[in-house]
């Protein structure tokens, strides 16, 4: 019973941690509060390499008036390109580099939101510059392939969303002091690990390809990995590690004949 109790505690701790990390990944960019606005899946900046004033996206295109005069202006309406874009799973927010809550605008929340960075830049560009922005990216550039990026990040969203729910269920199932409940918790942890792991892997692959593509294009647009991506990898590890202690709890736990 001591072994069973220890394993239950370890399994609960791991699944609780996984659930919390997965939920944090879900709330990224949902609002402008200090927690949500500092969690994102990906970041795009358009002002060039930090510390340099000569290689911004605007300088690369050799145009003026590309950036939004009001960094809190509505997205995707031709109001000007923002200095920084943060993507969550449900929306994106654009604003200044300092991420001031009063100098950014977030789009509406949408299930299955798609990561399409270059499409966002084109839509944000002033009307007279949209064609020039659209033609600036190489034809074979991954970061400009809206269909490819949108399709896979849409699929990854649903995997991560369902995986987060399953992670919560695996945590709750462990509270039932019965060996079959522990077996259920182990199975749920396995399913949760698979869903979150595959979803995080898809997003990671997209992030790597986008980053390399932007570096090769040298447009003054930079990519950075979001912390929510690492939250999901942490959630995957927690769910995967919880499988063994839950199975041991099942073997050492109580059946109905023990009551």
UniProtKB/TrEMBL annotation:
InterPro entries: SUR7/Rim9-like_fungi (IPR009571), SUR7_domain (IPR052413). The keyword RNA-binding does not apply. Keywords: Membrane, Transmembrane, Transmembrane helix. The chain crosses the membrane at residues 155-175, 182-208, 228-248. GO terms for cellular component: cell cortex of cell tip; plasma membrane. It holds the Pfam family SUR7. GO terms for biological process: fungal-type cell wall organization. This is Uncharacterized protein. It comes from Tilletia horrida. The lineage of its organism: Eukaryota, Fungi, Dikarya, Basidiomycota, Ustilaginomycotina.
């Amino acid at each position: 019973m001591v072994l069973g109790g220890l394993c239950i505690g370890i399994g609960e701790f791991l699944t609780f941690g996984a659930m919390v990390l997965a939920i944090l990944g879900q709330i990224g960019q949902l609002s402008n509060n200090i927690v949500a606005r500092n969690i994102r899946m990906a970041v795009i900046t358009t002002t060039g390499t930090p510390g340099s004033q000569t290689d911004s996206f605007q300088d690369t295109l050799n145009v003026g008036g590309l950036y939004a005069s009001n960094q809190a202006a509505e997205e995707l309406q031709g109001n000007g390109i923002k200095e920084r874009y943060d993507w969550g799973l449900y929306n994106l927010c654009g604003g200044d580099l300092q991420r001031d809550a009063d100098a950014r605008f977030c789009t509406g929340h949408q299930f299955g939101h798609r990561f399409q960075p270059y499409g966002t830049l084109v839509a944000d560009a002033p009307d007279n510059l949209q064609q020039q922005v659209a033609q600036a990216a190489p034809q074979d550039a991954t970061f400009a392939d809206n269909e490819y990026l949108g399709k896979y990040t849409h699929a990854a969203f649903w995997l991560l969303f369902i995986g987060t729910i399953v992670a919560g269920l695996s945590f709750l199932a462990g509270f039932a002091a019965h060996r079959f409940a522990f077996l259920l918790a182990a199975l749920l942890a396995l399913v949760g690990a698979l869903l979150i792991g595959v979803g995080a892997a898809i997003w990671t692959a997209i992030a790597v390809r986008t980053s390399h593509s932007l570096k090769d294009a040298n447009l003054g647009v930079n990519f950075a990995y979001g912390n929510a991506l690492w939250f999901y990898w942490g959630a995957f590890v927690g769910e995967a590690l919880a499988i063994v202690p839950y199975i041991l709890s099942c073997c050492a736990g109580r059946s109905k004949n023990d009551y």
